[in-house]
Amino acid sequence: MMSGMQCWYTCVRGCEGRHPIEQAIYDCPQCGGLLDVEHDLTALKITTAEEWKALFRERSHTMVGPDSSGVWSKGEWVLPLIDAEHRISLGEGRTPLLAVPRLASELGMGELWIKQCGTTHSGSFKDLGMTVLVSQLHQMIANGSQIQAMVCASTGDTSAALAAYGAYAGIPALVLLPEGKISEAQLAQPLSHGAIVLALETDFDGCMRIVEDVSADPRFYLANSKNSLRMEGQKTLAIEIVEQLSWDPPDWIVIPCGNLGNISALGKGLMLMKELGLISRLPRILAAQAESANPLYRSYKNGLRNLESMETRPTLATAIRIGNPVSYERAVKVLRELDGVVGQASEQALAAAAAKADLHGLYTCPQTGVALACLAQEIEAGTVGASDRVVVISTAHGLKFTEFKSCYHDDTIPEVRSGAPNRPIRVASNMKAIGEQLNRAIDRRA
Questions:
Q1: What CATH code would you report for 97-122+231-410?
Q2: Does residue 253 contact residue 127 with C-beta atoms inside 8 Å?
Q3: Could you give the percent of the chain with pLDDT greater than 70?
Q4: Cα separation values, 417 from 4, 344, 352, 361, 414, Å
Q5: Rounded distance, CA 377 to CA 166, Å?
Q6: 3-state DSSP assignment of residue 234
């Protein structure tokens, strides 16, 4: 435990009362609203902004142990009540922030970076939250909790992270997936880690309803982003971005979103840095949704007055195909505080945007395609200025979506036209035929 520092659960709607982190609680007992983790800012402010920066810089050189994690190197801001022996870390975070100047030029903008979250352990940003949740549960079980397993609903990435961290910690994982609605690569991950995987004849929202019923049983610990411990790890993504930019925040952060925990976490990290004096201004957020699963976009067009859940349609961006996002209340608070904008992208636009990014060496997942497509739209509309500095969060590795890539280059995605399909060229195995083909290929690209 980090001396003198505390945190607890509070209601996002402002109900009175604090609830201990050691309690398996997901809703406010007074109003049923979401909970948030609140930190003792007075204790955190004893350390100055420059001292925090120096401490994080010193830890950035650590190659092994808890401080080598991008999450636990910020442990005082994340979960100060955890004992070091219970930290369950797989080296999450510390992912590259990649400048892509040629892509920025093609989009007609100034500076553009891609935050490559897919290079973390299980291949998505979900690792950042899962290390915190599983670590806290590991400590609770060591202290006598009767919880026997963790449970989540997932469109792929959450289940992969939960299963990996659960396997490492020796805690069983139960995963509920919508049958046939996630990629084979994503399905292979929880199966490989030994999770109990149930494929249900419903969508993600149906899985989520059942998971909430399952987690009412005290033997099962809820691991979806409704559990606000997930936000504590994911907020380090915002801190890491700003740290990589020498504590000079970008003008915009663009993030694809489904269940909306990522927006909530991003806002928490940014506002904590400002509260502690590490930054003096906040970036704006562009939340990106697929047109086929766009409840936040619909709410945004209605002034964010209320959420109207929807029945989603099939989308290439399977990881954000969610019609009733759990973290809506949290996300709305962040969007209002950061003057956020919400965009949507068609299937054609997201596929084309992902393919364009790949030509710059990125190998993007379809969700990142959504983010890039929405960014291009906002540049064209003038919302994002030509001189603005922008970070796009790439939430998962493209290797999780090999079918999407192959079908795009085969030009076999229904209702999507591949602008530049690229397939192997059959050539006779002699230098004359190979030379002729190379000349044609080079001429076409000249």
A1: 3.40.50.1100
A2: no
A3: 99
A4: 58, 19, 9, 21, 8
A5: 40
A6: helix
59: helix, strand or coil: helix
Q: Is the pLDDT of residue 403 over 70?
A: yes
Task: Determine the residue type at 282.
Answer: L
Residues in a beta bridge with 289: 344
Q: Which two tokens stand for residue 346?
A: 């068609």
Indicate the pLDDT class of residue 311, thresholds 50, 70 and 90: very high
Burial of 273 (0-12, 13-18, 19+ CB in 10 A): buried
* CA gap 279, 145 in Å, rounded: 40
**What's the CA gap between 271 and 41, in Å, rounded?**
12
Q: Quick one: CA torsion of 340, 345, 350, 352, rounded to 10 degrees?
A: -110
d(CA 282, CA 263) in angstroms, rounded, equals: 14
319 — phi, psi (to 5°)?
-70, -15
Q: Do residues 329 and 354 touch, judged by C-beta distance below 8 A?
A: no
d(CA 332, CA 11): 15
Q: Is the pLDDT of residue 1 over 80?
A: no
- Rounded to 10°, the helix 402-410/347-358 angle is 100
pLDDT digits (tens, 9 = 90+) for 412-434: 999 999 988 899 889 999 999 99
Q: Is residue 195's pLDDT more than 60?
A: yes
Of 388, 423, 392, 416, the C-alpha closest to 108 is 388
**Reported pTM:** 0.94
Give, in degrees to the nearest 5, the angle at Cα 7 between 326 and 128: 50
Can you state the percent helix, strand and coil of the chain, rounding each to 5?
45, 15, 40
User: What are the pLDDT digits (tens) for 316-348?
Assistant: 999 999 999 999 999 999 999 999 999 999 999
Token pair, residue 142, equals 């060591």
With residue 256 as reference, give the H or E element that holds it.
strand 252-256
